[in-house]
Amino acid sequence: MAQRRKIIIDTDPGQDDAAALMLAFASPDELDVLGLCAVAGNVPLSLTSRNVRIVCELCGQSDMPVFEGAMHPILRKQVTAEHVHGRTGLDGAELPEPTMAVRSQHAVDFIVETVMREPAGSVTLCTLGPLTNVALALQMEPAIAGRVRELVMMGGGFFEGGNITPAAEFNIYVDPEAAAAVFASGIPIVMMPLDVTHQLLTRKDRVARIAALGTRPAQVLVGWLAFFERFDEEKYGSDGGPLHDPTVIAYLLKPELFSGRHCNVEIETQSELTVGMTVVDWWRVSGRKPNAMVMRHVDADGFFDLLTERVGRL
């Protein structure tokens, strides 16, 4: 058996973040989750921390180390997405308040300490929200850039444009300075942009297969997806909404589901019109050195087969 991959998940739940956490928890043979870091994003930090722990307890992971990180972007005012995710960030299912506690250590300290302690090239960072915690960790200890195996992230867009502005995807828009620092760091990056996630629609037939599992986690996930997809269905006129964040975990489990190319990616931080835009040199016209593996295509049926099968294990 291949060695389990050591990962840290940095997240701002969000129903799609919750689905990503569930996919990771259901895959212990492949993934060794060292800890979960909450960051302000879809909702404020107090709620993202709560929501991480709700998902942990739902999935029988009450011993999982959970750390709280940045309360706001590095330079900018906080932007949240209750209009998509609801007041709590996890609207759509009624669950008890979590009883597990967060660890006292700050998430940024945890990231630095873990990457510096574990063998170089062994820890993968999985980011499902704004990149604030990772940027602060790089600021605290630049040496982590040479020790991280890979950073697999959901964020950005190019041919699909943005989802919070015409140019910008939410995770990058919230803290573009953090994103710029991460893309300039030299860490090997795999980027899951809207171009991929917009191919992964929670169609009625796909959600019905999850519902048919009949387990408590599956029922809760179906409730979350029903709430989450209503916004995108109205916006895009689609059957279902795009399921963004589980692409990060799915890539670690089955990278063959995805295809893309190495590109240079720069982050716009100056323009009021396009702040947060991921400027992807897909056609390699800039002469700038590639700094990310940018995915563009995904086997959607294979992705939902994986998600459904793994959620059935919880």
TrEMBL record:
<keyword id="KW-0378">Hydrolase</keyword>
<dbReference type="GO" id="GO:0006152">
    <property type="term" value="P:purine nucleoside catabolic process"/>
</dbReference>
<dbReference type="InterPro" id="IPR036452">
    <property type="entry name" value="Ribo_hydro-like"/>
</dbReference>
<feature type="domain" description="Inosine/uridine-preferring nucleoside hydrolase">
    <location>
        <begin position="7"/>
        <end position="305"/>
    </location>
</feature>
<dbReference type="InterPro" id="IPR023186">
    <property type="entry name" value="IUNH"/>
</dbReference>
<dbReference type="InterPro" id="IPR001910">
    <property type="entry name" value="Inosine/uridine_hydrolase_dom"/>
</dbReference>
<keyword id="KW-0326">Glycosidase</keyword>
<dbReference type="Pfam" id="PF01156">
    <property type="entry name" value="IU_nuc_hydro"/>
</dbReference>
<dbReference type="GO" id="GO:0008477">
    <property type="term" value="F:purine nucleosidase activity"/>
</dbReference>
<dbReference type="GO" id="GO:0005829">
    <property type="term" value="C:cytosol"/>
</dbReference>
<protein>
    <submittedName>
        <fullName>Purine nucleosidase</fullName>
        <ecNumber>3.2.2.1</ecNumber>
    </submittedName>
</protein>
